[in-house]
Write a structure and sequence with these properties.
The chain is α+β, with helices and mostly antiparallel strands. It has 2 domains: about 10-95, GMP Synthetase, Chain A, domain 3; about 110-140, no CATH class. It is built from 6 helices and 3 strands, in the order H-H-H-E-E-H-E-H-H. It has helices at about 5-10, 15-35, 40, 60-80, 110-125, 130-140, and strands spanning about 45-50, 55-60, 90-95. Strand 2 (about 55-60), helix 4 and strand 3 (about 90-95) form a beta-alpha-beta unit. The relative contact order is 0.09.
């Protein structure tokens, strides 16, 4: 199977070409929006979609949503100066998904007697045995 760029794959079908064009336009709008907003707001705002002449922007907090809604009239004018005609900008709060940090793996301690017993058991099994490989790995990691 030969590898090809994702652009060639996406450009191969009519519906995929439309999807690629829409995604490219959203990326351009994201870059333009980032250039029009102050740094602290640009990092927290994401272009979610473009439906007709309505741009949908997701922000991380309600406070930033209020500030962005206040800036919508000037943003519409700024976008128009850059050649993007928008009728409306909808601002929605979309909090980032919270994922707690993964706990560190438990430290396993194996006594010397157990370790030698497991080594002996692994040595008595066939060399290509999955159990022998797992036992050797366990003893090595449990050190």
């Amino acid at each position: 199977m030969s590898t090809s760029s994702i652009d060639n794959f996406l450009g191969s079908g009519d519906s995929l070409a439309k999807l690629q064009a829409h995604a490219s336009r959203l990326l351009r709008l994201q870059q333009q929006l980032g250039g029009l907003l102050p740094h602290y707001m640009a990092d927290a705002c994401r272009v979610a979609n473009l439906k007709g002449e309505t741009l949908i922007v997701h922000v991380e907090s309600a406070g930033l949503a209020v500030k962005l809604r206040q800036a919508v009239p000037s943003l519409l004018a700024d976008f128009a100066r850059e050649g993007v005609i928008l009728r409306e900008i909808k601002v929605k709060v979309a909090m980032r998904e919270y994922r707690p940090a993964t706990p560190p793996p438990p430290h396993r301690h194996v006594s010397d007697a157990t370790r030698s017993g497991l080594d002996h058991l692994a040595a008595s099994l066939p060399a290509d045995s999955p159990l022998a490989k797992a036992l050797k790995r366990f003893v090595r990691q449990a050190g």
